[in-house]
Amino acid sequence: MQNSVLLRKIIHVDMDAFYASVEQMDNPELKGKPLAVGGNEKRGVVSAASYEARKFGVRSAMSGYQAKKNCPELIFVRPRFDRYKEISTKIRTIFLEYTDLVEPLSLDEAYLDVTENKKGNPSASNIAKEIRDRIFEEVGLTASAGISINKFVAKIASDYNKPNGQKTVEPDEVIPFLEDLEIRKFYGVGKVTTQKMYSLGIFTGKDLKEKSVEFLTENFGKSGAFYYNVVRGIHLSEVKPNRIPKSVGAERTFSENLSSEVFMLERLESIANELERRLKKSKIAGKTITLKIKYSDFKLQTRSKTLDYFIADKSLILETAKELLYQEKLENSVRLLGISLANLNTEKKKKETPIQKEVSVQLKFDF
Predict the structure, then answer these.
(1) Would the pTM count as exceeding 0.85?
(2) EC no. (predicted)?
(3) How many C-beta atoms lie closer than 10 Å to residue 228's C-beta?
(4) Residue 78, φ and ψ in degrees, nearest 5
(5) Does 329 have pLDDT greater than 90?
(6) Residue 3's pLDDT is what?
């Protein structure tokens, strides 16, 4: 027998090429031109790319060298995070005029639960359109939105009509929508998992739905239950206004590769200072310290150590980071170092993902 659940009205708002769009807004000379925020033509990593640059295959996390190779006309600008935070705060203020249930994922995206909202508007689709219009009129930027019965489907839907568009997946459309969806477009299914699913004959949501929970658990561990549920439109995660971070970190990319550990120790001290500042600001401490090392050939390595007690002090963080640095010989010169703290004192014990019964969708629901 099927269970009925209370359907929520969830909006996922995602700003369009946010960092790059802010730079183009503030400097009209950059409008319509291929732009990369972060990095440069010799080194560094692209933080964001304008849509004009994306046409050439430039994307975030790409090396500046490769980005310039893809797009010789590419313009690099330094990121201005204070400015991005300022704009993000204005956008969040608009969200809060509609609901207090706002869960920011980053500076440029957030979930909103508008099942009950301050405007008394029964249509989540109309609310999303109104919010997008206000962001454009009051801030000067475009946003895209996805609207559906849960966070998972709303997140996927927000990508459909980018830029400056929205897509609503109504309750009776959720299952067909997920069945037709390419598996690589499922939120939370990365490149490695996608390839594994391909090897198991899973190419679409329909293929995924045909697999038993036992099969999925055997091949994907605890994530198997998650995949089993979401392809059936079941994702019970609530919109949480006070989202608790799982880790806090700081890192630096160097203008020149470092081969001397003495110079690396100097940089680690600076990074530890920044990390301590962020921890104190958030009143957070943690037990697991991770040292991130990116070599000149872009190979990434992490080394971690878990302590028996919580720390937030830079001297203790630095001491452990040094220990991790000397843990084994470096493979090459280093272009980036980072330190992060996890296993935080804000975390609660995780619960197993339960297998939910099939949900009978009630169609009398205004989206």
Answers:
(1) no
(2) 2.7.7.7
(3) 23
(4) -75, 140
(5) no
(6) 43
